[in-house]
Amino acid sequence: MHSTHCALAVIREKYFSLLPDSAIAPLETAIQLSEKYHKTWWSIWWNSSNVRTKNRIKEECNHLAFDCYTAMMECAIAINTHAATQSALNIKPHSLWAGMISTLHSAFRWIEEENHLEINYRQLQLNLQPTTMNKPFSAIAHTRANYNYSIFHQSLLHENNGEDYALRHIYSLENTKVLLTKWGWSAEQVKTGIDHTTIDVYKNVVYLHICNKVTKRGQLIKIRGISRFISKIDYVEVLINRCWTKSDPYKLEPGSDWDELIARGNTGDFYEVKLYQHEITCTCHAYSGIEKAFEQDPVATKHLMLNSKTHGQIPDKHIFAVWKYLGAESLQQYEYCWMERKEAAMREQDKCSWQYEPEPEPELADY
Ligand SMILES: [Zn+2]
């Protein structure tokens, strides 16, 4: 671990200015953990300590090595994403870039060689937890047994499969199919590939993997594959667009008040859609599921807030149906329509109260 620590420290000392902002925090974490590992390991006399103490230190170091490796992965992903953006903009790499990458490679090689068991062992433990192994999940793409998911991804998985909101609503297979189609995959390629998809959600990005060789009836065949990091913006936009396409203003009925509408479901069920000045809420399951999905994922929420159409409005087909019904295509337009609708309702109310003003009581008039 000491050599890994040194390599990481060199990256901080020598190449700090080349690092993207998103790589700095995980690098710092990895440096601190690798140092703590070294100190913890040498905090006892290995020859004279008893077995219990040795085991305790080993376990502590196991956790430190595992977390250090995770932080290094996060750092490497941030650097890769940054490099991809730079090269897409045709920006030439800095003359020191290759040096930094080679130092990072050394850090990975050393931790993988020296701490091989420690960095894999805790993953194995996590994967074998009964809560994540024995229950059916929303999609195999999120829960492949032979794949080590990121810590963030694991935090999105719940004991109760019904609570995997972000995985179900944002990073779903359905949304992935739309993305693949957008990238030029044919319907046939999507259909073949989707069963072999692995979706790993990191804090800032999503890793999508489809292997390009699969065994079918004992034969190895080549299929179209993919292995890349995707921005969470892509998934959020697909979700918004799909909700927009599915929304139908003709399925709305007037509610009991001007700020309420009733949405009719396909099976004859009804949902209340409530119109507030800056947002709309709905009582359907999809709305509450999507709302919870965004609560689980702050980066996805950021993209929802920055989206020029939604500005943070939870995308639900009934809500977009109301937008269409009012003639709005964005939250700003909706807010304007809401004001107009409110004023119209107020005018109507004034007219009614004028008409129905009670006549003075005859007895009182006599006095
Ligand atoms: Zn709804």
Walk me through the structure.
The protein folds into 3 domains: 2-126, no CATH class; 137-231, no CATH class; 247-355, no CATH class. 57% of the residues lie in helices and 11% in strands. It has 16 helices and 9 strands. It has helices at residues 2-14, 21-41, 51-88, 97-114, 116-127, 130-133, 151-156, 165-169, 173-182, 187-193, 232-246, 285-296, 298-306, 317-326, 331-355, 362-366; strands at 197-201, 205-210, 213-216, 219-222, 226-231, 252-254, 260-264, 270-275, 280-282. The strands form 3 sheets. A 4-stranded antiparallel beta sheet has the order 6-7-8-9, covered by helices on one side. A 3-stranded antiparallel beta sheet has the order 1-2-5. Strands 3-4 form a two-stranded antiparallel ribbon. It is elongated. Bound molecules: zinc ion (ZN).
Total number of distinct structural domains: 3
Number of helices: 16
Catalogue the unreliable spans: 123-137
Distance between the termini: 100 Å
What ligands are attached or bound here?
zinc ion
Largest sheet, order of strands side by side? Answer: 6-7-8-9
